[in-house]
Design a protein that fits this description.
It is a single chain. The protein folds into two domains: 64 residues, no CATH class; 88 residues, no CATH class. It is mainly alpha-helical. It is extended, with a radius of gyration of 29 Å. Helices cover 62% and strands 0% of the residues.
């Protein structure tokens, strides 16, 4: 049985002083201090975690994919290609399975466009999007009074750029070159 102490008895112990915790503020890459962390773009922060995601995917899929490929009777280069294709397909399936249905079509269209533009860049040894940016700045300038004027300028320039034949694309417009790649891979 535990005896209850008399509440009238005063403690002779001195009250403990609260420890002062100094808040250490770290400067981020921009040289400023932020309460909520670095001012880095959230998308950049998300993308920087991709190496960790790759290790997680390795632990999930690597053994089973390697077993699958090892069972195939094919020369080594084709086995590596098969592994790449199986992994790529699994990644796209996973991305599309975890998204809400209304976003799957948007992801697929954006992925197809990205792939097609990147294939055009490789095929013609150019950078269509960089050319777009440089030519926009050259023709329209960098300074706009407001967001609406910038958007209007982008819309006007975009229509002309994507439909105009280009030397770096051997006389094709960017839209024609992209469409050609989409058709080549049955993505349209």
């Amino acid at each position: 049985m535990v005896k209850k102490q008399d509440s009238k008895v005063k403690s002779t112990a001195k009250p403990k002083k609260e420890a002062k915790v100094e808040k250490v503020e770290e400067k981020c890459e921009c040289g400023e201090v932020h309460e909520d962390g670095c001012c880095q773009d959230p998308t950049t922060m998300i993308l920087e975690m991709n190496p960790q995601r790759a290790y997680a995917l390795r632990d999930l899929w690597s053994d089973s994919l390697n077993e699958l490929v090892d069972q195939e009777i094919a020369p080594e280069p084709q086995k590596r290609e098969m592994l790449f294709l199986a992994l790529s397909n699994a990644m796209m399936d996973m991305m599309m399975d975890i998204l809400p249905e209304e976003l799957v079509e948007i992801l697929a269209e954006n992925l197809d466009d990205y792939l097609a533009v990147t294939l055009v860049n490789k095929k013609y040894s150019t950078d269509v999007l960089k050319s777009f940016q440089e030519e926009f700045v050259k023709q329209m300038g960098k300074q706009f009074d407001d967001e609406e004027k910038l958007q209007n300028a982008l819309i006007d320039f975009q229509e002309k750029f994507w439909d105009a034949p280009r030397k770096d694309l051997k006389g094709k417009s960017p839209n024609q070159a992209v469409e050609e790649e989409l058709q080549k891979y049955n993505l349209c």
